[in-house]
Amino acid sequence: MNEPQATEKLTLIQLLPNMLTVIAICAGMTAVRFGLQGSYEIAVQLILLAAVLDGMDGRLARALKSESGMGAELDSLADFFNFGVAPGMLLYNWALTDSRSFGWLAVLAFAVCACVRLARFNVQRKSEDKAHDNAFFTGVPSPAGALLVMLPMYLSFGLGTGPLLPDVILALWMVICGLSMISRFPTWSFKTTRIPRKSAKFFLVAVALAGAAAVTYAWITLVIFCIAYIAAVIIMLPRARRRMGKGAPE
């Protein structure tokens, strides 16, 4: 009887998705470092970079057919730190250090909500029930929750001012964003969106304009993107609920 091979050699291309995940973890860790040093704009940019890498690694793994259990778990752990821990730490150091205990409680609440959200996602991903509607998530995804919770920072950076919201309102906003991640209401999944062929040229022009705006007026553009995302979730909510008759999507 032939003994099974102890190790399986992998090509660098097959390891590329996990490499992106590791880079995303490093970006999140470095974001916390810059936040502790008071370089908040760089810290937020690093979390945004981690979000971009998070959107790439899974799709790249599927395209290369190099998906693995280790990669999935590594991605989940990276998401918890980058989108559950780092944003809350940044907000706390940016504006809530003088808020006594309630600011830190808001940070803990947001981190726990992100953890629960990811745990629920992992359970549903591993389940054998494939009947759910992939067009919608259950609750706000953790990367979107992280981007939304930093909305007050974008607004402040864009206007060139310090924190604009009182400590209590900022802490409440953090808790609301956390609860949105563990909520049961459906949110639109952009990955299943289809663009009609005749509208593709207009979509590409819109993407070019959005990219130009993001480069020229980065923080204000992020504010607009966050507001547009919230509006899209609200507008799509009735349609999503009609499609959830067969079970909750994830």
What can you see in these coordinates?
This protein is an all-alpha fold. The chain has one domain: Four Helix Bundle (Hemerythrin (Met), subunit A), CATH 1.20.120.1760. It contains 9 helices and 2 strands. It has helices at 12-36, 40-64, 69-96, 100-126, 142-149, 151-159, 167-182, 200-216, 218-242; strands spanning 136-138, 186-188. A two-stranded antiparallel sheet has the order 1-2. Helix 2 packs antiparallel against helix 3 (69-96) and helix 5 (142-149) runs antiparallel to helix 7. The longest helix has 28 residues, at 69-96. The model is unreliable at 1-6 and 246-250 (pLDDT under 50).
Nutshell version of this structure?
Helices cover 72% and strands 2% of the residues. By secondary structure, it is mainly alpha-helical.
List the helices and strands and how they pair.
Layout: H1 12-36, H2 40-64, H3 69-96, H4 100-126, E1 136-138, H5 142-149, H6 151-159, H7 167-182, E2 186-188, H8 200-216, H9 218-242
Antiparallel strand pairs: 1-2
Helix pairs in contact: 1-2, 1-3, 2-3, 3-4, 3-5, 4-7, 5-7, 6-9, 8-9
Please give a handful of descriptors for the protein shown.
mainly alpha, Four Helix Bundle (Hemerythrin (Met), subunit A), two-stranded antiparallel ribbon, 72% helix, 2% strand, globular, disordered N terminus, disordered C terminus
- The geometry reads as globular
Largest sheet: 2 strands, antiparallel
Beta-strand content:
under 5%
Helical run tally: 9
Considering the protein shown, what is the CATH homologous superfamily? CDP-alcohol phosphotransferase transmembrane (TM) domain
Cα distance, first to last residue? 44 Å
Return the domain count: 1
Helix proportion range: over 70%
Q: Which ranges are low-confidence, i.e. pLDDT below 50, for 5 or more consecutive residues?
A: 1-6, 246-250
Question: How does CATH name the architecture?
Answer: Up-down Bundle
The string of secondary-structure elements, in order, is HHHHEHHHEHH
- Class by SSE composition: mainly alpha
Number-wise, the strands total: 2
Mean pLDDT: 84
User: Regarding CATH, which class?
Assistant: Mainly Alpha
Radius of gyration equals: 19 Å
The CATH topology name reads: Four Helix Bundle (Hemerythrin (Met), subunit A)
